[in-house]
Here is the input.
Amino acid sequence: MRVNTLDHGNGIRSATEEDFDRVLDIDSHSFSAPWIYNFFQSALKDIFLVLEKEKEIVGYLIACVCHDIEKAVIIRFAVHPDHRGKGIAKELLRRCLHILMERKVRIVELDVELVQRAAIRLYESFGFKIANIIVFPSNTPGDEETFYIMRLELPKLEDKAVS
Ligand SMILES: CC(C)(COP(=O)(O)OP(=O)(O)OC[C@H]1O[C@@H](n2cnc3c(N)ncnc32)[C@H](O)[C@@H]1OP(=O)(O)O)[C@@H](O)C(=O)NCCC(=O)NCCS
Here is the structure.
């Protein structure tokens, strides 16, 4: 088990393996293709934040930093359905972007499926822009899957803080 006592404030801290039961539960309620345990285990080397309210994890966010090109990718992000619409995702994303700015990351990217309207609105409200559109074709007309690649240019920490 990895011990990580990093506490980022506001109930946000780095994940440990002990959080995985709850994280897996949130993940299975949030995605049609849930991650397995090992994926989360590998993500412990990345920025893996959980937000806890009254001793219960209500959301998590995983971002991976590519140091050589000052770029990061948000790879997994969800809030438990019972806790949505209360600003939990905003808190997690704001904290993540602040950590990335501290690490001098300049570009943040993610992909989001067109049907994930709440997520798209959330990212747009933080200034993410659509950088590319990817359509995965299907044999059944109307069953194509469309994804946006969204990108945010982060200011330098001394220029501007993410509020
Ligand atoms: C996307 C998700 C993380 C948002 O979590 P949340 O805690 O409910 O979001 P917040 O309460 O912080 O809301 C933040 C913003 O998201 C947008 N939003 C949230 N819920 C929304 C909804 N039902 N419809 C439209 N926009 C919505 C709004 O812009 C909102 O800001 P506002 O309240 O000022 O209008 C959550 O819905 C979720 O886990 N969805 C399933 C998994 C997923 O899509 N993950 C992202 C993959 S890229």
User: Anything to note?
Assistant: Helices lie at 20-30, 37-42, 88-102, 117-125. The domain at 7-110 is CATH 3.40.630.30 (Aminopeptidase).
